[in-house]
């Protein structure tokens, strides 16, 4: 019996933290990469390429939280059940909007 061990070396890509997201700048278009680099150098005084998505995220999440909590309380759910449901909703919404932001940044 022969055992073969293979090691696959994947090239490392450099990531940059931009607005809480690990972004692989090499995957971004030149325009997006330049905007991110400018924003990182100049700070909050530059246009944010994710501003509309972040605003949509806040608005959508606030509406969903209010609706879920109201519905659950109307059905006499316990405080623990409401809290658990809200935590699950927040996790779901965070992942959903993270994916949308990555699509925007990578323009796919």
Automatic annotation (TrEMBL):
Top-level taxon in the UniProt lineage: Bacteria
Name under which the protein is recorded: Uncharacterized protein
């Amino acid at each position: 019996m022969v055992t073969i061990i293979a090691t696959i070396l994947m090239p490392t890509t450099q990531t940059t933290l931009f607005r809480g997201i690990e972004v692989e700048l090499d995957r971004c278009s030149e325009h997006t990469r330049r905007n991110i680099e400018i924003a990182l150098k100049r700070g909050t005084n530059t246009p944010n390429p994710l501003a509309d998505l972040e605003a949509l995220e806040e608005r959508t999440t606030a509406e969903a939280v209010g609706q879920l909590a109201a519905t659950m309380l109307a059905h006499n759910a316990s405080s623990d059940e409401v809290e658990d449901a809200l935590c699950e909703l927040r996790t779901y919404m965070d992942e959903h909007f993270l994916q949308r932001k990555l699509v925007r940044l990578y323009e796919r």
